[in-house]
Amino acid sequence: MRADSLASSADTGPCNPPWPGSIQGAYDRRTGTSGPGGSRLRGPPMSDVMETSYRRATGLMHSAVEREASDIHLVPGYAPTLRIHGRLVAVDDHPLEEAEVRRMVEAVAPDAVIARLDAQKNFDFSIALEHEGTKRRFRANVFYSHSQLCACLRVVPVQIPTFEWMGFPRELASRLVHMTNGLVIITGVTGSGKTTTLAALINLLNQEGGLRVLTVEEPVEYVHPRISSTMITQREVGRDVDSFYDGLKYGLRQDPDVIQVGEIRDRETAQMALSAAETGHLILTTMHTKDAKGAVTRFVDLFPHEAHDDVRVQLSLSLRAVVSQHLLPPVEGQEKRVLALEAMFVNQPVRIGIRFGKIDSIESAIQTGRRDGMLSLDDHLSQLMSAGRISVETARRWAKDPEALHAAMPARG
User: Fold this and answer.
1) pTM for this structure?
2) What is the pLDDT of residues 395-411, one digit of tens each?
3) 222 vs 79, 166, 268, CA distance in Å?
């Protein structure tokens, strides 16, 4: 199955944004003849070794798509491994050597990535190939372990998943995107679907029309087509803009109504997000924490200790909601993992808890905030258990108060 470059003129029309991160650079190095559309390609042909590495890497990518895997792991000392419905599955019994991993990365990565393989120890990029006539995209993270190059490739679905498929309540999504301003944080551990949720929220805005939306991502995963009067500009860190901070800073000069920031991970980006929220923009972003109160703590801790009081005041006024996500194993006989949520909206008790650093009071406010649309994790676990989507054991394992959950929902026979 041939994997050619996807950067063709057919992809650049107004209704079909260009596909960033196509394997044009790999295609260029692979052959010295011609590329898609008959254009002459630069550079010498790939060596036989690199051609073999290219075919092996793209073969793994095709296999991941066909087997409905979410990730591909390339780690020296281990066989190439797929994560399929949450489980790790070795592709073969041949442990990779570091040189093999490096060659596979070099065979498919954009030229700009190859140039910094040794100088930069962690970086993300997106690549794309054609699979059975359909463009498929992958988010790649390259990193080092024991001074050896490793890679993890996340398979990006062809279409942005629907809220129904995700198990994300549509009414919750609608409430989040229809806030006129402020900061909305989607939080969860790595692999909990935060990026997918952000994409689905932007897709909802795209369907409704009439808005100017800017995204700053690292890398761009889901490409939003032009389907309405909503204008969406997607910028990739490292290619279109130097950092999340710069994307936010200069994005404010681009007349946005809504800004999606892929992740808040440093003080500068956090401060700019607060400023943007205060000036009337809706900011959608993610953080790596396990729950709402953890997101508040993490956000404040990005700043020096002497600034915490001021940041808490700002955050209490700008934060609108935090949604925490967990992907849980399903009941026996099912494969698709189940989304469990905690949803916190900033009402007066939450605002007071944030402002005065009484973080534990946020948990109580969520428990008693049903009238304000809040959802505790344990309540949602109870609902999922009652619907037969997760087991009693899974619910107890993930619950914040397992004993209370067990008392409220006795184990069924």
Assistant:
1) 0.80
2) 999 999 998 887 776 54
3) 29, 15, 26
